[in-house]
Each structure stands twice: as C-alpha cells, then as structure tokens.
C-alpha cells in the first residue's frame, strides 16, 4: 500500500491504524458501500472504482458533501476559525451555542470541524434534543487539516454520500458491490455501556439485525459483506457462520491514558463460503 491518507476528522473508533490489515479482508468489487462511514479512513485508503458512503449523522454527511463540491470556499472559511483567539473556552462555547441554533448547512459544517478539533478528544456527541454537547478540549494548538481536506475532496469525486441508516444502505446495494460495516462497538462486557451513536444508542438488537442483514445480503444476493467489531464471545456468536479472523490492536478502553489493554478486532466476512450448517 502507498502512503496512508489520514482523515481530516478526529474520530472515535477510526480505522486508520488498522487499514493495512483490514484491507486484506476486503473482497474485490466495483463499488464499496459503507453504511457507517465515520471519518472515512477505509474509503480514503482503498481503490474501488466508486463509493457509496452512508451515515446516520446529518452533520457528517452534510460536511462531506460541502468538502466534495466546494473545497476552496470551505477551507477558507474553516481555516479562519483556527486562530489563537478562537482556541479559548469562552469562544468554543459560543460557537457550540451558535451551532446548535443555526440550521444553515455551510455554517454548521464549518463549526463542526472547529469543534471536532477543539473539543474534548474529538468526540461527536449530542444530547437527547439533538444539541452538540462535547466540552472544550484545551489543546495547545489544534491542527488545521488543510492537506487532508484537499485529499478527501479529490477522492470524493468518485463517491456518493447519503444520510441514511444501515438498513436503507443495504437496500441500495447491487451486484458488483462490496459492503464494509464499521458499526458502533459491541460492549466488551455486560457492564460496559454501548457507544452512543448520534441521538439514539446502537442496541444489541441492532448488532443482531446487522449480522442478519449481512448474512442475507451475501447468501441471497451474492454481495460480500465485511464487518469489524470487538472480538468477544458475543460478537463471535452474532457472526457465527461468517469467515472470522482477528487483528490485534492497541485500544484505550478506559478514560485513564495509562489504562491501555490489548483488545482484538474481529473481522467477519460473509461471502459465498458461508455454509448453512453453520447456522
């Protein structure tokens, strides 16, 4: 693989560090469909002829469409926010309030990147009313990702972005597609909380439905589906019958920076090698 391309957003659960190992599990095809595009590291570091990139987060998809179609205008506006006087708690909370009040797509997209780079840990989190509620991050000098924005915009000329849920994304797949699913992680234990995914949580029922849809898409329609998740007894049960492999990753599963633990990443590939006796 040539030099890896970083995403322009900071993103929890991003796949940049796993891309070499993950790419080996992706089948060949004409188009890659991602129902959970996130920061887009897989899109940026693969070479399909075209892409259908989906996410349920309207702000994320709106941002990608603007970077795709108006990169120069967007970069100029966003860069103006990355100045010392804006790297301030009071300034951040003023922007966050304005973001939650405005419905203007361009302004929201500019503020979204500002908050992504100035907010705590690059989190993307909303309250039940849909308000962005990530606190200020107090970073010395947040990085403005101009190079990454331009690379994304160039690559995005071969992509279509849709703000839809994973079920609808599967309905848009056709012969020749490959599907890669990077859902919110299943919990590592029964006491661990689920990842908050936009306004609503991604429940265990969603994890199970995603597995069923993936299996159906591969067996009944001949479209291969790769899913990545934590490697746990739960996910192995969910994905039984798929071709399973693991990747060792260094993942921080605690808020304490020193509390790092090796957690395997499970790769579950549904394709024509799935056998009914595994069901």
UniProtKB/TrEMBL annotation:
InterPro entries listed in its UniProt record: Ade_MeTrfase_dom_2, DNA_methylase_N6_adenine_CS, M_m6A_EcoRV, MeTrfase_D12, SAM-dependent_MTases_sf
Principal EC category: transferase
EC number: 2.1.1.72
GO terms classed as biological process: DNA replication; DNA restriction-modification system; methylation; mismatch repair
Pfam families: MethyltransfD12
Keyword Disulfide bond recorded: no
Residues at which S-adenosyl-L-methionine binds: 11, 15, 55, 182
SUPFAM superfamilies: S-adenosyl-L-methionine-dependent methyltransferases (SSF53335)
Catalytic activity: a 2'-deoxyadenosine in DNA + S-adenosyl-L-methionine = an N(6)-methyl-2'-deoxyadenosine in DNA + S-adenosyl-L-homocysteine + H(+)
GO molecular function, a single term: sequence-specific DNA binding
Keyword list, A-Z: DNA replication, DNA-binding, Methyltransferase, S-adenosyl-L-methionine, Transferase
Family of the protein in this entry: Belongs to the N(4)/N(6)-methyltransferase family.
Listed name of the protein: Site-specific DNA-methyltransferase (adenine-specific)
Lineage: Bacteria, Pseudomonadati, Pseudomonadota, Gammaproteobacteria, Alteromonadales
